[in-house]
Amino acid sequence: MFDKILIANRGEIACRIIRSARALGVRSVAVYSEADAQAAHVALADQAVAIGGPAPRDSYLRGDAIIQAALDTGAQAIHPGYGFLSENPDFVTQVEAAGLVFIGPPARAIRAMGLKDAAKALMQEAGVPVVPGYHGANQDAGHLAAAADAIGYPVLIKAVAGGGGKGMRLVERREDFAQALQSARSEAATAFGNDAVLVEKFILKPRHIEIQVFGDGVDAVHLFERDCSLQRRHQKVIEEAPAPGMTPEMRAAMGKAAVRAAQAIGYKGAGTVEFIVDGARGLRPDGFWFMEMNTRLQVEHPVTEAITGVDLVEWQLRVAAGEALPKTQDALTITGHAFEARLYAEDVPAGFLPATGRLEHLRFCDGARNDAGVRAGDDISPWYDPMIAKIVTHGATRRIALKQLEAALGNTEVAGTVTNLAFLGALSRHKGFQGGQVDTGLIARDIDALTHEPDLQDWQIAAAAAFAIELPRCTDPLAGFTLGAAIWQDVALDLGDAPVGDVRIAVTGATRARVAVDGREISVRAEGAGLRVEGAPGLVRGCCAHGRITLFGTVPRVLWLRDPLLREGALAAGADLVLAPMPGLVKAVFVIEGEAVEIGTRLAVLEAMKMEYTLTAARAGLVAELLTREGAQVEAGAALVRLEDGV
What we know:
This protein is α+β, with helices and mostly antiparallel strands.
């Protein structure tokens, strides 16, 4: 076994690898960018080395700096985690040339699976079923359009070097193909430096089921399946294992196909073979097709660990150190059911846009596994994936594990940035999902219900007012004492852009108050760090930081202490300004000053997290002023274009 390894990654996966290494007595070296100098993975590792600026190209994608850090610190091997350099065969070659061990598959295996078209051809030769489509080298737009016609709509355009939904577009009509192709190519070129695409038949009720495989370069086993069908824009949201409705016959067929795929390329280490499954007629051994192989550890690997009792990172270290596969296929079994929910800093109602901000408060439920790479007080950086944590539950049955997930989400507390926590909770309560009726279109079909916010209750307004004045800290025995009537003060609250009624509060004693909401009085008293509020179903927890009041619970809510001057300014300018919905790079600007635009006219493209977002005009008018330029890096809320009425 190694004495010391370097982790060429950051965030939760770096922290997770460090913990498994430490359990084996292996010391760890972290690398970090300027933006991550105070990050959790840096504090957790035995050593840490700075490798460059905040942009990934200046740090986590600098293979030379990472290898030098390993040599300088005496590390014997490099674990890539996932993302960044984890599937870069040239990096693997450089690591091995430096006399170090790459904790992952050989470069030839990564190359074999790195391009989707070549990988599909290889899988066909190995007897693995593939989706009907065009995977050829001819990238002429007309040729691709003709291929789509031959396949039959709907079709899916996919970057051949892609992953994570980048460079992927669903096309349902022939007339939309050209624009979708152009958009997919542009995004693919940005994310992967390769704009080549393939075209595949789109399965109408698809499920995304993947098989975890593990090889030692000669032999391979599978550790059963994960269902990753709950997706939005091709990004996984909640994963589970085993797959609902899975039959022994189909599990055996999928497992055998995945092992054949791994053996065909001499696979070593942890990998995932992803299949698209036709869920229209139930799970059948003839109803699944190879999509791609991820030649690395997957984000959702904890659900496999939960049902098998296997530490996949431990297996990675042991096999990379020269050991044989720790278990045979016959020794691997499934116990219970597991779920993983990905908690992100993102604005769900705004289209799942990534968000930034300081985590003023962060608290997880003790009854779940919480793989996090951030702590309270940390900043969610615009430079990297905005994941906060992966919340994992395991129970004897699917129903029990899902109830545990619902409870864990309801008891997770985050303040300081917008998150998808309420959305995840709504998904865990979705009747179809609870019944195992999952497919990749579920979220899109039910997005309105899943993002619906119930009306704000008076007890929630009262709680927000109490947190606004920090009632739990009002411990003076004489607090609120007066010889006359109670002293009331106004609390101006906003929910989004709308004011919340007439709210007043009067402190009536130590940690006690009365709140008047539109004339109705509600009693409130602090209990520990929470509040007992008249009419509330239980203890209310929350916090107030920088005018942002967050109420935690099953359906977390955010209210704001109103700044009248800022509000008036925003109202005056809001109708004419096009603002950046997130921090990012201005990839393109399509208009010039003085140009007339209509509703829906494309104004600019903003790139963030290697995804592209098109900004359009919300009203007709003239471009009065361009406030940005192509290539500019902008913050969330930055004004990009100012419109005015046409002459």
